[in-house]
Amino acid sequence: MERKIYGQSKRMDGVAYDIRGPVMDEAMRMERQGEKIIKLNIGNPAPFSFFAPEQVLSDMARQLHSSEGYSASNGLPEAREAIVGYCRKKGIPNVGIDDVFTGNGVSELITMTLQALLNDGDEVLVPAPDYPLWSAAITLVGGKAVHYLCDEQQNWFPDIADLRAKVTDRTRGIVVINPNNPTGALYPRELLEQIVQVARENDLLLFADEIYDRLVMEGEPEHVALASLAPDLMTLSFNGLSKSHRVAGFRCGWVALAGDKSRASGYIQGINTLAKMRLCSNVPAQSIIAAALAQLPERDPAYCPGGRIWRQRELIWRALNDIPGVSAVKPQASFYIFPRVDMARFHIRSDEQMALDLLKRQKILVTAGTGFHWPAHDHFRIVYLPEEGDLLAAAERFRAFFADYRQD
Predict the structure, then answer these.
(1) Widest CA span of the chain, in angstroms?
(2) Of 19, 252, 358, 393, which has the most beta carbons under 10 Å away?
(3) Dist CA 178 CA 338 (whole Å)
(4) Torsion-angle region of 270 (φ positive above 0: left; ψ -120 to 50: alpha; else: beta)
(5) Per residue in 88-118, pLDDT tens?
(6) Separation between Cα atoms, residue 217 and residue 220, nearest integer Å
(7) CATH code for the part of the protein at 66-294
(8) CATH superfamily of the 10-50+301-404 domain
(9) Cα–Cα separations (whole angstroms), residue 213 to 93, 175, 208, 244, 403
């Protein structure tokens, strides 16, 4: 009898996550052989000495014994009450305790809320560049990610005309990532109002990925929650402690269902069912939410002039723009920058090959721009979390690499 061959599901066609893709696999192989790599590919604060506040860690330790059992499927009541309070502070309307779901990071909740909504062929508008989990999750559940362009010449703000042109009768929602990953752009109120108007005209859901809302550089406008501008629409507002409290490994996220939910009872029932199927999210991580949000500073000192993230942004932004053939828009928030390279100057046909060549020649790990569904092979993402000494070393290696790089 012929033996069966087990391949991957056809739903995996087109599903990728290049942030941890083949170039990273090669970097790990090189590390095992003793190579020292400057890693600028993943927004993981802890390896770069951005540690959680001691009070957050002691709160978790103190509550471990009371966190051994399951919680309610949508989360601990005290955690959800605190999230409701945070939503109120941000002007996010019509959120009660039953509208909040905690998750093992925002990533789990993105997949869960899309699973509950999409039928085969349904479309969701996603920015280009995007955080690639959104496109992957949409594809994995049978939907279609349709990418609207963000304009590099306009501080990486979404092109509203392109967004409007991409709406079809199969469109179910619009994803807005603000502050943006991978560009570090912070969207102004006027722009967000235009996005809301497109959703309003076409009766669409809004998916607001706002995990970096508290990581805004001083001097930039305050972050505006998308849901605060759309009380007449249903907005799913995603947030968490991974970045603001530097506990990425704790996997502590949430989604709040905001605005007008009067026509979404079936959808909400689906989210509830999926939440129950996974039993609950990490209870020790949930146990710190209330205290962590209560202790939240108005602004992280690292993002103020002279603060560490502020200095590192200035360093890498200036260094990149000082390299012939390379340019970058200054990020306003988060800790990412999305530089552009001159394809003609460097004869670039594959940005993944460029990232691989950079790794092998200069021992720097970055992520190619097409990994974020950018349509051209002329960008890459840098995480500027490493300390200034490492960033200076990386800047010199970038300069050396692009001084004579030509892709054969």
Answers:
(1) 71
(2) 252
(3) 15
(4) alpha
(5) 999 999 999 999 999 999 999 999 999 999 9
(6) 6
(7) 3.40.640.10
(8) Aspartate Aminotransferase, domain 1 (3.90.1150.10)
(9) 17, 15, 11, 8, 37
